[in-house]
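Good morning N.,

You mentioned wanting to compare the apo and holo forms, so I went ahead and generated the holo version with adenosine-5'-diphosphate. This is what I fed in:
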Amino acid sequence: MLDTPVKPATEAGAPAAAPAPVETDGFQLVIDALKLNGIDTIFGLPGIPVTDLTRRMQKDGLRVISFRHEQNAGYAASIAGFLTQKPGICLTVSAPGFLNGLTALTHATVNCFPMILISGSSEREIVDLQQGDYEELDQLAIAKPLCKAAFRVLHAEDIGVGVARAIRAAVSGRPGGVYLDLPAKLFPQAMDAAAGKASLIKVVDAAPKQIPAPEAVKRALDLLKGAKKPLIILGKGAAYAQADADIRALVEKTGIPYLPMSMAKGLLPDTHEQSASAARSYVLPEADVVMLIGARLNWLLSQGKGKTWGGATSKSWGGQRFIQVDISPTEADSNVRIEAPVVGDIGSCVKALLAGVDASWPKPAAEWTGAIKERKDKNVAKMAETLAKNPSPMSFQSALNVVRDIVKANPDAMLVNEGANALDFTRSIVDMYKPRKRIDVGTWGIMGIGMGYAIAAAAVTGQQVIAIEGDSAFGFSGMETETICRYDLPVCIVIMNNNGVYRGDEKNPTGGSDPSPLVFVKDARYEKMMEAFGGVGKHVTTPADLRAAMEEAIRTRRPTLINAVIDEGGGTESGRITSLNPTAAKKKA
Ligand code: ADP
Ligand code: MG
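and this is what came out, ligand included:
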């Protein structure tokens, strides 16, 4: 029934002489509404009731990237939103497809990425009476608490409004995930083509500028000016805002040391002399005034309190005074007192702050910057020593030393990163040189974003992608190697293979034949997965071979999977978040 073509407009009853009215339908209106609003790429997975929609999208010039699992398509859409400031679109079938996409939609919302999950759904009347339809599920109700906004369109003439509202909700204010429910019956609904066209909305000013109040800007500047040990923290909201030149100017003109959160790395090159990354554990407790730009005081910043910040106990305030630049007015005071909230879009806020920084701005005292430099130099030297080692089997560090050089030589490449130890070590070892080049596990610290992010990064930017994956993390989305080969994307996956979760040497304590729940097949040949689909697979055990394999992948731009065998005893449990493990946390307390 869904595949029934739109009936020709002239049917019995029409007066012979009348011109044939031209009709359109729900399928077409969805496509036209998206195209009208500059959407050019759809990440999804076809099936009932959206199969024809994907066909017709492609026919009409949209790029449809078809995945093997909706969660990966959803993650792709979410990061496409982060990279482009346009909502990333994920299209799924009903019930299970919708639920698979929902994880990514929630992820988008939590990370403040604009995304729209469009799912087909079953017949409303049957779902509401719970009469047992094909893939029956009240999707709208389920999506609502997990995203920023959720809408359902029942009539073809409302598609324009539905898409416009979804776009506005996704990108305006604090960006986030939006669910758009399109019941199967909507797609073949016919309507007059001219009326259909007139019903569509081209969204004007979807993410309106939000100019900060002058008194809020002054309050922030006064506090910052009076600081003895100021610090700026840049978060992924700052990276999202695409206000790169002004952010850099603000940091450089004030001379204040800064810390980039992981997806803000490269906003200024990590080698910048004002970067305090290598002295993080020194600057957080020492700083007296901290300006957060697009970064939240969540768990990634120890909620702004506790020992990380120099507090006496794990819950106490370290004495820092905070300025927070954020688009969300309710973000301030969520963990500690924010003395100077600056509410607005980061572009406008940074511009306004910059206007108050002139040649008379008091540069931070040499005592502060000097002390930071001393720590940095010491830590960098220590790191260089570790990186220079060449143990056999490879360590995370000796392998990542290669990745560090390759990224330095290819600063435009996109770096995808997930895992536990593979994440922590990469974040601290591999310097980034340009904005929005590092995309990773984000606010939740999740596994599973890898291949979805890699595919979207390649599709959206056209750049070479390097994905540094833990062997466990890769497993969540590894089947998408087929997608990478199918679309022939320039993705080079490097698996830091230590045979397990965290490490690969755990044993079953009972001595039974089942392996430990934390280990995988020993010496798994992941590279053969890529070969199975026509890509390039490499199995490497030395830094020299890893380097050669990565260089070849980048030179040829072919889909490549490098299985980098590293010491199975190399990782620590949970990487750097060991303290979040209940047993470890209990021991500590
Ligand atoms: P990180 O994890 O890098 O610290 P977060 O995701 O915690 O970053 O914080 C990002 C913050 O940036 C959120 O509070 C969000 O409201 C804010 N934000 C996102 N986009 C913008 C924007 N364009 N202008 C202002 N603030 C923004
Ligand atoms: Mg591992």
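The mean pLDDT is 95.

Happy to go through it together on a call whenever suits you.

Best,
F.
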